[in-house]
Amino acid sequence: MTSQVLDLIKKYDKIIIHRHTRPDMDAIGSQMGLYHLIKDNFKDKMVYKVGDTNNLVYKTTMDEISDSTFSNALSIIIDVAVSELVSDSRYLLASEVLVIDHHRNDTNIENSLFFQQSDYTSACEMLANLAKEEKLEVSSEASTYIYGGMVTDTGRFQYIDSTNASRVFSNAAFITSFNPDIKDMYDFLYTEDLEKKLVKQMFSNFELTSNNVAFRKNTHEMILESKLDVFGVSRGMVNLMAGIKEVPIWVSFTEDLENNKILAEIRSRNIIVVDIAKKYGGGGHNFACGASLKDFNEADLMLKDLNERVLENGNIK
């Protein structure tokens, strides 16, 4: 299918690249990695990148474009396949839509091509493989973004299924052959100022269910006190509960007062939990996923399901 993706890109002189809201590094990395791949190989094409921003937007800005720009254009939506999570819904104005995603979700977006590889660890890994299969020119800029997304969505290559490890490292080796700025990307991702390091202490404690599911409930008041944004607490703090031998599943529930939602971020060690996320309207990876819940009461229902999942897997204290 990589050739079909490339054929659709070749068809248009004007391309707009979207990704999901509240972007993580795979969203930014795949959006910008694809942007540079297109510019590297089709220098005359007009390529734009759109969406909301946060502190993970690495060395770029999003383009401010008018509705008319979408006329006779291809919109590419990457790292997301559900319409409610796409940043900038004006893809509806484009002539055609290409969806590229690695999550275990069907798409509800009307499209000309849905390129899905749900066994891939990241959208960036999909791009690395596409570049390899189609023998594309890859710049240092493209490789830096793509490598960044691969690193973060695998938890620095910790969360890889053994059946896919050879492919993942092969794609990582391929993309790093193009001189990515790994040190700068790592500094960006993993170096924190002292104030943020101290703030993390606010979110270091947690509770346990009867089957050792670790959980936190982060209220709006806690977020205000931390001076972080909702995403920084929801996605940024969940893995403070990771790496504990007795804890097979960990989950954070964060109050998003602006959108009247509770953001659930679920992580696990070798226990599939994505179906539970889907039950509540979410999705993601087998061992790392999330959902937007109505309230903390619904969070308790999800927590009950996660607690039972541990028991189903025979992994109890």
Structure description:
- By secondary structure, this protein is an alpha/beta fold.
- The protein has eleven helices and eleven strands.
- A six-stranded mixed beta sheet has the order 6-7-8-9-11-10.
- Helix 2 packs parallel to helix 3 (123-133), helix 2 (25-41) runs antiparallel to helix 4 (140-153) and helix 3 (123-133) packs across helix 4.
- It is globular.
- The mean pLDDT is 94.
Topology readout:
Elements: H1 2-11, E1 14-18, H2 25-41, E2 46-49, E3 74-78, E4 96-101, E5 113-116, H3 123-133, H4 140-153, H5 165-176, H6 182-190, H7 194-199, E6 207-208, E7 213-218, H8 220-226, H9 230-234, E8 249-256, E9 261-268, H10 274-279, E10 283-284, E11 288-293, H11 296-312
Parallel strand pairs: 1-2, 1-3, 3-4, 4-5, 7-8
Antiparallel strand pairs: 6-7, 8-9, 9-11, 10-11
What would the keywords be for this entry?
317 residues; alpha/beta; six-stranded mixed β-sheet; five-stranded parallel β-sheet; 36% helix; globular
Quick overview:
The chain is 36% helix and 18% strand. With 317 residues, the chain is an alpha/beta fold.
Q: If you compute it from the alpha carbons, what radius of gyration comes out, rounded to the nearest whole angstrom?
A: 20 Å
Structural class: alpha/beta
Number of helices, counting only DSSP H or I runs of 4 residues or more: 11
**Low confidence ranges:** none
Beginning-to-end CA distance, first to last residue: 46 Å
What are the secondary-structure elements, in order, as H or E?
HEHEEEEHHHHHEEHHEEHEEH
Helix fraction bin? 25-40%
Strand fraction equals 15-25%
